[in-house]
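re: that chain from earlier
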Amino acid sequence: MKNFWKVAISFFIVVLIGASYTEYESRVVEFTLSNGLKMLVLDRGEAPVFTFRTYADVGGVDEAMGETGLAHLFEHMAFKGTSTIGTRNYREEKKAIRAMEEAYQAYRDAVQRKADPDTVQHLQEEFLKLRAKADSYAVTNEFDRIIEENGGVSLNAFTTSESTQYFYALPSNRLELWAVLESERFADPVLREFYRERDVVLEERRLRTESSPFGRLAEEFDAAAFKAHPYGRPVIGHRADISTVSLTQAQAFFKKYYGAKNLVIVVVGDVDPDEVKRLAEKYFTRIPPGEDPPPVVTQEPPQNAERRVILFDVAQPQLFIGYHTVEFVHPDRPAIQALASILGSGRTSRLYQRLVKQEKIATGVSVFSGTPGNKYPGLLEISATPVKGKTAEALEPLIYLEIQKIQDEGVTPEEVKRFQTRAKASFIRGLSSNFGLSGQLAFFEVITGSWHNLFREPEKIMQVTPADVQRVARQYLKESNRTVAFIRTVPKGGK
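^ sequence. v structure.
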């Protein structure tokens, strides 16, 4: 009975939101400040709170060789405060940071030119001494503390291959405080504790990737799938790059990619759009416009041969299979999403039924489209985990048989209808919260060129036909267009 009511309430919410989400389009207020920063505001006053999303159009794909991980590292630095927030004495701190950076540049130069060990050690000790002095002026987490003391929740950020996004929620009567803080950290950032935070990111990489068989496999898989395009590089960065990147490089990266023209800010909740605009003009115009960042011009060439990666590990087997497809704005994208859903979304999907229910050879299987990103052509990716005693390789033939069946026989209208029902319900649930709405509006504004396209999405979903699904399966799911990566379990100390 408890589950029945959960389902019933969820269905009611979806129907209720679905009946009204189209009204949102007419209520979104859009304006662009004199410095080029675009803002979207939606008054959705169901509770006296608001959520915002600052979407910086920069991610892992924008990094230069030798600077991988810098977009993610800067995300960390955006919480370090300003010349007035997070410092005990900024005048002295500024001098200390400058001296520290000069010492680091000297130390790094000595390492790179392979100076004698005594010189390197001396320069390292000098750098560490000056780093400690610079860090002594920092008031750690003061930015976070101010927000939390004023009722802020969900303070966070994340970096992807193509974006860096910042967000939290505040009571509506703290709107001006938000405008002050959010504009300040991009108009006047101080990258204090940079080298301490760099060590934090190195530890994060160790935990997520180097100490995780799944993380190592994912990194090898992306690198094999993308030979030219920067989608093949890890967003967290390569260890060698993270461990040598400098504060000077981070400052240059900020100047290049965090101009106002490269930011979109969305505010959703109990707010007056006119008041948001007034505060935006008062505070956010302080952010320099910046130059238009250079586009990513490298294109992934067509894949004409299957690529295979085997990770020998004591860990449980895992299988990844990827096929190159299209970017989000491509006309084939909705049909590819339908194909991914029919193949591996939920317990009614073909691969789940075949691998888990019938053959009992896998514990789980999932299929996603649009990985590792949406801005450029990405992958349709299949992930499967075999049951104990079975290998990842044993799953492959069964997966290919199900793909071949779709290519030869197509899919049923009922399968497409189930996809459309699930996709539309998921779309509507994504608009049921201020957080979801802000993210979706920002995504469609940046990735598709207009937030209005968000409200065209259900129509595109409903236009997919069984013939479309069969066509894209034949066109993209080819052996020559396939990258396969799996863990082969070996005894400890084995190959």
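The longest helix spans residues 2-27.
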